Amino acid sequence: MSQGISLGKKSVGECGRMLAAHARSLQKRYGRWSWVPAESLALDFSDPDFLADRERALHLLRLLAKPPFHLRSFRTRIGSFFRDAGELDRGLLAALRPALSAPGAAVIIETDGFSGRAEAVAAALADRKVAQVHRFVCQTADTTVEDLLESLSRIVRLQIRCGEGFRAEALPAAEPARDRDARELAARAERCPTGDWVKELDWCLLTALCRSEELLLEDRRSRRALVLRAAVERFHLYHELGGAR
Amino acid sequence: MRLRDPKSNLQLFLTRRCQLRCRYCAFRKGKGDMSLKTAVNGADFLLGARQTEVCLEYYGGEPLLVFDVLAESADHAVRKAGKLGKKLTFYTATNAIALDDRKLDWLASRKFFLELSIDGGSATHNSQRVGLSGRVDSYAAVEKVIARVRASGIQWGVIAVCAPENVPRLARDIEHMLDIGVRSFDLNYAFGAGWSREDQDAYFAQMLRLARRHRRSLAAGEIRIGNFWPIAEPGIINGALTVDTDGTLRQFNEWMFEDKPPRAPSPLGLGNVNDRPDINEIYLSQFASAYAIVRMYEGDPAMKRTILNNISAGFRFKRFFSALKAWVFGEAARPPAFPPAAPEWRL
């Protein structure tokens, strides 16, 4: 059974030697190369940002696009998909598909919130038919209701656009939102009880709508109500998938 | 590219005419029948759905007052469904005043699911379901057809509306209906009424009382309570698609407040069946439904309070019936406690 491999600060050469040693140990364990189960040839890299060292990543991706090993997963961060000028790294993206072509293979991307950059990366990966899992933090201390709705509406758009090759998983917050309404809505989104992001977005909007109306009935000038209402108005046509108004 | 939530049910509101003026009914009565052409277009609209199983529902006003349109459009739908390879079912609800043998036999032959509008014993029923002319005993009218309905072989049940003031009699009213042969119930709480926390709790207590008494029969399926399978609660934002007499597509909750004219038109703009829209392009989520009705009553705080109240109450009713069902069918060891009030918005 394959275990997570940590590259740490290994150089390209060291990585190559590491994989060769891994191959030898498998052959020794199973006697013959042809007896090594396919599962044992699947590699998961546990480093928090596999793509951070671009050259090393490209080398490994090219290596793993060929037998005997195949790449099952690696973790990375959104920023690693961009070049210094802020453009998507097309060379890196092009190298992903051949390496992640085995069934079940996916890139795992961790991010705070679900930004426009995350959406751009997700779309680029989907265009190249690379399966992706986005692990995102629903809330930080500064998250507003509008931020949360923005993240969820992006996820819904990507869910529809990318189909089964796209998954989003919410991570528990290290620090909850200071805004009370954002905190309560994000807490539910983190659980995602329905497993369906469209339903979660709809629920958040419904809650925000009703809460804003209730608050306005108590006080027409309620700032909290007006903030909620503005968020609802921005995203009330989310089903048109065209982004916030 | 957009989200779609295609519907597999469609309600045709055949007429604004009705022999009754039920106190909780907000539907604006008067003249106005759906033409056969509009009803046929409505049926075609539904049959354009991608789903292979669809249901055409006839409402009103009193749909049996426009029986010819009902019958011809339903027969058209049957022929078309056959060509398309779709499974088509029918439903109608009626006050039974115009339900004669000819209509009953026809409805039975087309395998309609027929719901009789009965709210309870005669005192409860007639307190709410008053006649237009004041001379109609609406309870007597529906009671006299029950024997014939049972004998017809049609699949049938009762749709009962409970107003808050009738909650203390709810269990007794349902017992009465059981006594006269009813075995299938869809129990509605009156929309457009304010449901206090106490009203809701009293409703739950009545239902618990009933469920304790009839648990075995409920579990065996000898008595059916449709609320155990809540397709669409809160009912006020269930997003059901309806066709007005002139073909305008609306969402169901617009009827619940029609006698209190909205301050703004619905933002949904669903179209008209006579323009041959595509049902697969419709998106009506709970939020979309709530947003539309709330914005229609912008500047009307009393209506907004009622709308919020009915949404909140609807969620409680849903949780209660879900828990009651679990107990009845042995999935939970104890009868349900009353659900906590939705924290997001108060009564």
Strand element count of chain B? 9
What percent of residues of chain B are in strands?
A: 5-15%
Strand content of chain A: 5-15%
Reported for the largest beta sheet of chain B, the result is: 9 strands, mixed
Distance between the termini of chain B: 39 Å
Query: What is the count of helical runs of chain B?
Result: 9
Order of helices and strands of chain B: EHEHEHEHHEHEHEEEHH
How helical, in percent, are the residues of chain A?
40-55%
The biggest sheet of chain A amounts to: 6 strands, parallel
Shape summary of chain A: elongated
Helix-strand layout with pairing:
The complex is a heterodimer of chains A (245) and B (347).
Chain A lengths: L3 E2 L6 H19 L11 E4 L8 H11 L5 E8 L12 H10 L6 E7 L3 H12 L4 E6 L7 H18 L3 E6 L8 H12 L5 H22 L4 H13 L10
Parallel strand pairs in A: 1-2, 2-3, 3-4, 4-5, 5-6
Chain B lengths: L8 E5 L22 H12 L5 E7 L7 H18 L2 E8 L6 H9 L2 E6 L4 H7 L9 H15 L2 E8 L7 H10 L4 E6 L7 H23 L4 E2 L15 E3 L5 E3 L34 H11 L4 H28 L19
Helix pairs in contact in B: 1-2, 6-7, 7-9
